[in-house]
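Entry 14. Structure prediction run on the chain below.
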Amino acid sequence: MSRVIVVGAGVMGLTCAVRLLEAGHRVDVVARDLPGETTSVVAAAIWYPYRAWPQERVLAWGSRAYEVFAALATTHDGQDSGNGVRMVPGTEVMTESTPDPWWAGAVESLSRSAAPAGYGDAWTFATPIVEMPLYLRWLAARVETLGGTITRLNLSGLPSGGDLVVNASGLGARLLGADASVSPVAGQVLYVEQVGLDRWWLDGAGPTYVVPRSRDIVVGGTAVEGEWSRTPSPETAEAILRRASRLVPELLQARVLRHKVGLRPARPSVRLEREGRVIHCYGHGGAGVTLSWGCADEVARLASAS
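Output returned:
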């Protein structure tokens, strides 16, 4: 099997590394930012296809990831697996009557539900919620258990070593892949104390989302195209909290723990293709977690192709 260098230690790079190692390749992950420092760790990480194209490929990748996450959320004895993955029910609201989403076939039991006051439509389904600090540690440990390595390394271009290189560098692909079509879409979130919330809520018009985790709640968000700053805005935080409190009024009494801004790696379409000895896998927008296992399976297939 090949020696593969994976560039990028966010959720996509680590997931690709796991699948490549499972296929028998020797894998070394190199990245400027280690897993706990990446944009991935900021994410609310609810399975939901967002700002990723084209739809047909996104649906296939997302469906596969949904299956894997559902399996990861269940252990043989029904106990918490420690990987931070849970299947959680929740509701998406719309301002007016809306057809079923194009990705409805990927999830279990999507059904219409009563819309809250001020909204015209709503649907409910169970979806994976991935607590990223826990999950990234679990993924990194999986890489190392399988014999891979993770190394901090500042790169000015794709590595020349190895038999294959997987370019999972996210926004870094602007430089490393010489791809000017990759651009940031900034997303600001708040983390507030857990107030007993056991359901997620989403209003795509905001974009507004409330995602419960074991010890906190992620409240978002924004989608500012072309913004590179990672500095949170107090005014934006207040606006996010006001929007979210329409869905969960209890948030107004919750203590704010911290603020973060993550930069989604947007592109007109996800780039997943092999170009000689390089497999490109980037441009996942706001759906890196959502597409991760499906994309990683395809990367592993491309790596094994002659």
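The chain has one domain: 3-304.
Filed with the rest of this week's runs.
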